[in-house]
Amino acid sequence: MAVSTLRQDGWPQTTIVGYANEGLTLYFLIFRSSQKLANIRNDRRVSFAIGGDASDLRHATAVYAAAHAVEITDAKERAHGWEVLVSRHPNLEDFNLPDRSRAAMIKAECKHMSVVDYRKGLGT
After folding, report:
1. What is the 3-state secondary structure (H, E, C) of 37-52?
2. Model-level pTM?
3. Which CATH superfamily is domain 2-120 in?
4. What are the tens digits of pLDDT across the range 34-50?
5. Which of 6, 24, 122, 123 sits between 20 and 30 A of 31, alpha carbons compared?
6. Ranges for the Pyridoxamine 5'-phosphate oxidase N-terminal domain (predicted)?
7. Could you give the C-alpha distances from 42 to 35, 57, 70, 79, 110, in angstroms and in order?
8. Which residues pair with 43 in a beta bridge?
9. Are 46 and 66 in contact (CB under 8 A)?
Protein backbone atom coordinates (compact mmCIF):
# COMPACT_ATOMS: atom_id res chain seq x y z
CA MET A 1 0.00 0.00 0.00
CA ALA A 2 1.21 3.50 -0.72
CA VAL A 3 0.71 5.91 2.16
CA SER A 4 1.05 9.65 1.75
CA THR A 5 1.73 11.94 4.68
CA LEU A 6 2.28 15.69 4.81
CA ARG A 7 5.73 16.97 5.62
CA GLN A 8 6.08 20.02 7.86
CA ASP A 9 6.84 22.15 4.81
CA GLY A 10 3.47 21.14 3.32
CA TRP A 11 4.82 18.84 0.62
CA PRO A 12 3.37 15.32 0.41
CA GLN A 13 5.60 12.31 1.04
CA THR A 14 4.56 8.88 -0.27
CA THR A 15 6.07 5.56 0.75
CA ILE A 16 5.14 1.90 0.56
CA VAL A 17 4.17 0.02 3.74
CA GLY A 18 2.80 -3.40 4.55
CA TYR A 19 -0.67 -3.18 6.05
CA ALA A 20 -3.69 -5.09 7.23
CA ASN A 21 -7.23 -3.92 7.66
CA GLU A 22 -10.15 -4.64 9.91
CA GLY A 23 -13.08 -3.14 8.06
CA LEU A 24 -12.22 0.50 7.38
CA THR A 25 -9.45 0.54 10.00
CA LEU A 26 -5.92 -0.01 8.68
CA TYR A 27 -2.88 -1.05 10.72
CA PHE A 28 0.78 -0.72 9.78
CA LEU A 29 4.16 -0.55 11.49
CA ILE A 30 6.77 2.11 10.88
CA PHE A 31 10.19 2.68 12.37
CA ARG A 32 10.20 5.24 15.14
CA SER A 33 13.01 7.12 13.37
CA SER A 34 11.04 7.42 10.11
CA GLN A 35 9.95 10.64 8.48
CA LYS A 36 6.44 9.12 8.20
CA LEU A 37 6.03 9.03 11.96
CA ALA A 38 7.22 12.63 12.30
CA ASN A 39 4.77 13.63 9.58
CA ILE A 40 1.84 11.81 11.22
CA ARG A 41 2.64 13.40 14.58
CA ASN A 42 2.56 16.80 12.88
CA ASP A 43 -0.63 16.17 10.83
CA ARG A 44 -2.81 13.09 11.28
CA ARG A 45 -4.26 13.30 7.77
CA VAL A 46 -2.97 10.58 5.46
CA SER A 47 -3.97 9.13 2.09
CA PHE A 48 -3.68 5.56 0.87
CA ALA A 49 -3.64 3.87 -2.51
CA ILE A 50 -4.10 0.13 -2.62
CA GLY A 51 -4.08 -1.75 -5.90
CA GLY A 52 -2.14 -3.97 -8.19
CA ASP A 53 -0.78 -3.94 -11.68
CA ALA A 54 -3.47 -5.58 -13.82
CA SER A 55 -2.25 -7.29 -16.97
CA ASP A 56 -5.41 -6.03 -18.69
CA LEU A 57 -6.64 -2.51 -17.95
CA ARG A 58 -10.23 -3.81 -18.05
CA HIS A 59 -9.47 -5.82 -14.89
CA ALA A 60 -7.89 -3.03 -12.86
CA THR A 61 -9.16 -2.44 -9.33
CA ALA A 62 -7.95 -0.06 -6.65
CA VAL A 63 -9.01 1.63 -3.44
CA TYR A 64 -8.08 5.18 -2.52
CA ALA A 65 -8.73 6.46 0.98
CA ALA A 66 -8.18 9.47 3.19
CA ALA A 67 -7.81 8.75 6.89
CA HIS A 68 -6.79 10.04 10.27
CA ALA A 69 -3.76 8.14 11.58
CA VAL A 70 -2.54 7.81 15.15
CA GLU A 71 0.13 5.85 16.92
CA ILE A 72 -1.28 3.10 19.12
CA THR A 73 0.29 3.31 22.57
CA ASP A 74 -1.99 0.95 24.53
CA ALA A 75 -0.25 -2.45 24.86
CA LYS A 76 -3.43 -4.49 24.25
CA GLU A 77 -4.37 -2.44 21.22
CA ARG A 78 -0.81 -2.74 19.83
CA ALA A 79 -1.00 -6.51 20.29
CA HIS A 80 -4.35 -6.57 18.48
CA GLY A 81 -2.89 -4.56 15.59
CA TRP A 82 -0.02 -7.08 15.38
CA GLU A 83 -2.52 -9.98 15.31
CA VAL A 84 -4.35 -8.32 12.42
CA LEU A 85 -1.06 -7.81 10.56
CA VAL A 86 0.05 -11.42 11.13
CA SER A 87 -3.31 -12.75 9.95
CA ARG A 88 -2.82 -10.94 6.63
CA HIS A 89 0.92 -11.61 6.41
CA PRO A 90 1.58 -15.19 7.63
CA ASN A 91 5.31 -14.68 6.96
CA LEU A 92 5.33 -12.60 10.18
CA GLU A 93 4.24 -15.55 12.36
CA ASP A 94 7.83 -16.38 13.34
CA PHE A 95 8.45 -12.82 14.54
CA ASN A 96 7.39 -10.93 17.65
CA LEU A 97 5.79 -7.53 17.67
CA PRO A 98 8.73 -5.12 17.41
CA ASP A 99 9.48 -3.25 20.62
CA ARG A 100 7.70 0.07 20.97
CA SER A 101 11.08 1.82 21.26
CA ARG A 102 11.92 0.71 17.68
CA ALA A 103 8.58 0.69 15.83
CA ALA A 104 5.30 2.54 16.03
CA MET A 105 2.03 0.71 15.40
CA ILE A 106 -0.21 3.04 13.44
CA LYS A 107 -3.99 2.83 13.22
CA ALA A 108 -5.73 4.76 10.47
CA GLU A 109 -9.48 5.25 10.42
CA CYS A 110 -10.75 5.81 6.86
CA LYS A 111 -12.88 8.94 6.44
CA HIS A 112 -13.24 9.18 2.64
CA MET A 113 -12.91 6.35 0.16
CA SER A 114 -13.03 5.82 -3.61
CA VAL A 115 -13.07 2.50 -5.42
CA VAL A 116 -11.97 1.96 -8.99
CA ASP A 117 -13.27 -1.21 -10.60
CA TYR A 118 -12.72 -1.26 -14.36
CA ARG A 119 -14.28 -4.73 -14.51
CA LYS A 120 -17.56 -2.80 -14.46
CA GLY A 121 -16.43 -0.63 -17.35
CA LEU A 122 -13.58 1.81 -17.94
CA GLY A 123 -13.81 5.01 -15.94
CA THR A 124 -15.85 3.50 -13.07
Report:
1. HHHHHHCCEEEEEEEC
2. 0.88
3. Electron Transport, Fmn-binding Protein; Chain A (2.30.110.10)
4. 999 999 999 999 999 99
5. 24
6. 1-105
7. 11, 38, 11, 25, 18
8. none
9. yes
